Amino acid sequence: MKVEHLLVLANPTSSHLEPIRRLTPGIRLTVGLSEEALGDAVEQAQVLLLDAPKKELLRTLLPRAKNLRWVHSLFAGVENLLFEEFIQSPLPLTNAKGVYSGSLGDFVLAAMLFFAKDLRRLVRQQAEARWETFQSVELRGRTLGILGYGDIGRAAAKRAKGFDMRILACRRRPEQSAEDPLVDEVFPLHRRQEMIAASDYLLLAMPHAPGTQRLMGEAELKALKPHAVLINVG
User: Fold this and answer.
1) How far is Cα 51 from Cα 33, in angstroms, rounded to an integer?
2) Which residues pair with 72 in a beta bridge?
3) What is the pLDDT along the chain (234 residues), one digit of tens a residue?
4) Per-residue b or e along 125-159, where b marks 16 or more CB atoms closer than 10 Å to that residue's CB
5) Which GO MF terms are attached to this record (predicted)?
6) What are the start and end residues of each CATH 3.40.50.720 domain in the chain?
7) Contact, 153 vs 173, CB < 8 A?
8) Spelled out in words, what is the top-level CATH class assigned to the domain 101-232?
9) Which of 5, 83, 17 has its CA nearest to residue 41?
10) Which CATH architecture has domain 5-94?
């Protein structure tokens, strides 16, 4: 596919778009967040890049985009972009699945350390120019339960394993992780309360899909240990 014109639904001042601006000079680039800002570029573009979940704007633009051949989202999830006309169109839609796994894995580790080492207290004492000793805990030997063991869940497990944590995983298809060297035990979804009850840290890393709705409710929250930490990146 020959690309002559790239249309980007994004804030024109976004710094992370700089690599796109450095594309081959022969490609025309139009960036904006409104129909007015995009102008006649809508009719000319072959590729549409989405950096904002503007479903209604996309719904307005799609009938005008006669030359469009490909839509790509910079988000991992695309449920907020879908509507019937788009679903029924022949346009391929791709996403950024896996791109954010490393960063979110780092965040999960940071969140666990935040509570294990009571970093909030350290920052408060620093602001008050005082020092009082207090007890913190190690991550070593603690259990991380992961509800939704996909790219993000595995990235978090890899980092946690480096701290000698025990890893429990719960997913729709547990057989896919049966041989995973990072996981100590895999649970099917109907046994999630058993996994939750054994976890010191519980990570929610489920994609937004029909099969993942209402997996955390009152019963699951009551199954948590009193000291457990709940981390949601799903």
Assistant:
1) 9
2) 49, 94
3) 788 899 999 998 888 888 888 876 788 889 999 999 999 999 999 999 999 878 899 999 999 999 999 999 988 888 778 889 989 999 999 998 888 899 999 999 999 999 999 999 999 999 999 999 999 999 999 999 999 999 999 999 999 999 999 999 999 899 999 899 999 999 999 999 999 999 999 999 987 776 777 889 999 999 999 999 999 998
4) eeeeeeeeeeeeeebeebbbbbbbbbbbbbbbbbb
5) glyoxylate reductase (NADH) activity; NAD binding
6) 5-94, 101-232
7) no
8) alpha beta
9) 5
10) 3-Layer(aba) Sandwich (3.40)
Q: What residues contact residue 81 under an 8 Å CB cut-off, 6+ apart?
A: 50, 53, 55, 58, 73, 75, 93
Question: 179 is written with which tokens?
Answer: 């041989």
Residues in the chain: 234
Tokens of 225: 């240990």
SS3 call for 93? strand
Is residue 49 a contact partner of residue 20, using CB atoms and an 8 Å limit?
Answer: yes
How many angstroms separate the CA atoms of 138 and 144, rounded?
13
- Sole residue written with tokens 């590729």: 47
pTM of the shown model: 0.81
Sole residue written with tokens 């778009």: 17
Residues 234 and 232: their CA atoms lie apart, in Å, by: 6
